[in-house]
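S1.2 Input.
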Amino acid sequence: MKRLVGLMLLGLLGWMEPAKPGYGANPPGLDAIRPRTGGQLYAQRMATLQAGALYSQITPSTFLEQWQTAWHQPTHEDWQNLLAQEAAMMAVRQGHRPLTVLVGDSLCLWLPPDHLPDDRLWLNQSISGETTGQVLRRITYFANVRPTDIYIMAGVNDLKNGVEPDVIVSNMELIVQWLKVQHPQARVVVLSILPTRLPSISNQTLEQVNQQMAIAVRQRGGHFMDLQPAFRDHEGSLRVDLTTDGIHLNPLGYSLFATYLAKP
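S1.3 Output.
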């Protein structure tokens, strides 16, 4: 009984304290206790879902008891099921509030919700390691929500896996085309693939893909937002002060990322 009461109180606290925007070099909550592994993040989001709360509205350490000692390594199917359930809950709970949907790979998955503006709801439909082809196959998961904006970032895993640029561009074009039909009221924004510091991904190829995607996306009625100038150094690689490993972002990188998601 005590455990149940504690779970309910934590859920209420998550609803009472909305996420705060985090802009600049020192975003709020930078030192907060938060999930650090995929298993921990999955456990936290599952606990949030089971408590009837929205992940975008909890504080970083919410449901600490449930996720801090998480040992289960979620599968790709586990993540797909979780995202489908979160989208279904959002469809019921959204009401008349504006909603922004994020769709992508690990770069979007790990975007801290407390870095995001609290003037709207957020639904993160991202899975680590996914390619544009995998994203394309699951965008129907959130078909029943009513977003005002949809941001998509994918493609870096395609490049890591040797997928041809034409395939990446074609997949992204199909994603935009489908979303424009599925959510005619929404602004669909494709974010450029971020630069990396990986030797296996040439800056020239990455820039080529971004340029081709920009043309294809706009032809389909979508918007293209180029993040390259803000994230690359003088050599065209990901700025070393924004990354943990040459591809993923650190807190400073996510703080910069969040400023672009707040732009009209």
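S1.4 Remarks. The radius of gyration is 18 Å.
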